Amino acid sequence: MNLYELEAKSLEGEAVRLDRFSGKVTLLVNVASECGYTPQYAGLERLHRKYAARGFSVLGFPSNDFGGQEPGSPETIRAFCTSKYDVTFPLFEKVQVKEGPGQSAVYAALRAASGELPAWNFGKYLIGRRGNVIRFFPSKVAPEDPELVSALEAALEEAP
User: Fold this and answer.
1) What pLDDT, in 10s, does the model give residues 33-81?
2) Which of the four, 18, 132, 140, 155, has the lowest number of CB atoms within 10 Å?
3) Cβ-based neighbours of 86, under 8 Å, separated by 6 or more
4) From the candidates 16, 35, 47, 142, which is the catalytic residue?
5) Residues 117, 111: contact at Cβ < 8 Å?
6) Catalytic-residue membership of 81
7) How many CB atoms lie within 10 A of CB 67?
8) CATH 3.40.30.10 is held by the domain 3-157
9) Do the beta carbons of residue 143 and residue 51 sit within 8 Å?
10) What are phi and psi of 151, to 5 degrees?
């Protein structure tokens, strides 16, 4: 499975071919504005800024699947992320993470590739430069957790 062969919509509803991230390492995260893990936005943004020059990006996929903790419109989500956490990484339209009718093609592909689906908000997939899933990190693993950072840095060392 190559995640970078898929397409998703930006938070503003524009089609985004994920191949624009081909050759980069990404951390794909299901995000929510009203979750106990929402402060992880700050750590995600710090990672995004720290490693961007080395070919890294965080990709945020809002979801209302877990506890109804992302009820906002795209405009509300954008305003929250910008004003509260100064988020500059790409945000995509709200998606269904859970299996079943309506599940996002991105999350169906992630499940097929890794055998994992987030059990809550802020599940993190580390994706390699070729679009392969390297590792899944559950919600409780903070963005700047040494184990996640170590895996990220190792992925950045791999040749494109």
Assistant:
1) 999 999 999 999 999 999 999 999 999 999 999 999 999 999 999 999 9
2) 140
3) 45
4) 35
5) yes
6) no
7) 12
8) yes
9) no
10) -65, -40
Q: How many CB atoms lie within 10 A of CB 149?
A: 15
According to DSSP, the residues that pair with 15 across neighbouring strands are: 9
Instruction: List pLDDT tens digits, range 98-153.
Output: 999 999 999 999 999 999 999 999 999 999 999 999 999 999 999 999 999 999 99
**What is the residue type of 74?**
P
Give the Cα separation of 142 and 137 in Å (integer): 9
pLDDT score at 2: 84
Residue spans per domain, the chain: 3-157
CA dihedral 79, 45, 31, 124 (to 10 degrees): 170
**Paired tokens of 27:** 């951390």
Whole-angstrom Cα distance, residue 105 to residue 85?
28
